[in-house]
């Protein structure tokens, strides 16, 4: 196993406080075709305010790792803490918001009531619900669509509504599992820009799973490159890009150098397989 | 724009008119109907309808013309046969066919109309099936009377309607006994019990393992077998019929609700888990709304099952009122028009019952692709 490599912090955002700390984390699924090693000895630490991307081919365990943080999967061995608690305690404390691959909005609820869903479950008073829904919808530029049903909106707007839903209860940690995977390039660029803007304004910690190298490099302060069978971390890259990132930063040599390193990391993971 | 463009219905109608002309009593055909003036008027109406619909008039005018001529001709034929039932000749049936063809043309013209207002379009959605239904009755009436079908085999709809009009109090008492007591009480109890059992089976594994197979067996019980037993248990009056309805409606509701509770997606359920939502919160905010289309399916299936169950159960012992009781006794007394009257009332009540539930379903599951259309 490659040691996770901690580069010098290049970003002033990086704080001392650790949000997620995993050490020697392994997870094996028992399937009919024998055991599948989804995660193998993954050690990683994510600091407060970081934007961490997980990138790798299908089956490398990046989604599984996110689901372990969220207490949706149980690790087979190793230790993980979220906000200093077990993932299960963190979930009970509503420590994180989770954005799935699809919007997963409830079609019988209007957009504002979808965003209010976690608030209802957490028993937040109605007046405050209203105020928070209005605020988060504004954050994702969906003001004016409160009374629409999800199936009346485009895919990009639906995904923005689901991000608003994850933001509504103000958890400090945002877990995003390929949220823009199903969207086209143009909408994706736009949402990436908005996401960076939102991250800058809210100062949340974001864990972001993606397939796309440019997306990972553009968004992240830290890129975790993973490889499959068994799922493991092959490289951890601290981004040297400035906090202010216009879309055309993707043409700069600095950006391309980081992208090349990510690609090398992915290729190294693949050659192991052959 | 006057262009001669006959529809195939109009062409066939004209052929029927020509055929009828050659087989008229005056032209040496067999005795057609008692009043041959009516026959001539019907012939003239048919010709006007067939010709008028073929000369390129506006669709609305054609529809009006067809409406008047088709129904006018049918009226002439049916009133003309009065007193001479069973004597109708070939010309009568040819003209009936002609009138039916014009009505067919009318329905296809109406279906193709483009209406500017929503209200008009809605009216048309009701009018087209109404014309369909009326023509089933017209053909039934005209054929039964023209061919002289024995009353005991199939009474004409007019006789059934007359019987219904003259026995309103009896029918009302039967409806109140069978539908408002047995069916409604049994339906509400059976559906509620099935629903509650499904939620409990979902909550507790031992119930899911134990109750579902038993429920399956209950659904296989023959209603003919359990009805007399329910009469012994709950007496002759409506509670025993309601009990039969409960047994019949319980299982469809149980299996549909169980299937519906499993219908929500894994992503949606994971979402609730990330909110640390309790079992009941997940049930009420996610799984029951997602199950609503299944539950309404069960409610619709049960609405017809309940009616059948209550009527059949009355065959096995009942006070001297009720729709099933009336059907079984009036058949014995050869009063088939009364039997048909009860059948008509049952069909009407069943349709209203079903329609009300379907309307509520549209309101509750408006979000489902099958209702919002896409």
Could you give a quick summary of the protein structure above?
With 274 residues, chain A is of the alpha/beta class. Chain A is 36% helix and 24% strand. In chain A, helix 3 packs parallel to helix 5 and helix 4 (126-139) packs across helix 5 (155-167).
Explain this structure:
The complex is a heterodimer of chains A (274) and B (374). Helix content of chain A is 36%, strand content 24%. By secondary structure, chain A is α/β, with parallel strands linked by helices. A six-stranded mixed β-sheet of chain A has the order 5-6-7-3-8-9, sandwiched between helices. In chain A, strands 2-1-4 form a three-stranded antiparallel β-sheet, with helices on one face. In chain A, α3 (111-121) runs parallel beside α5 (155-167) and α7 packs across α8 (253-273). The longest helix of chain A is centred in the last third of the chain and has 21 residues, at 253-273. Chain A is globular and about 50 Å long. The two termini of chain A are 17 Å apart. Chain B is 79% helix and 0% strand. In chain B, α2 (36-52) runs antiparallel to α3 and α2 (36-52) packs parallel to α4. The two termini of chain B are 40 Å apart. The mean pLDDT of chain B is 87. The A-B interface holds A 70-72, 91-94, 96-98, 100-102, 104, 106-108, 117-118, 120-122, 149, 151 and B 265, 267-268, 270-277, 281, 285-286, 289, 292, 365-368, 372, 374.
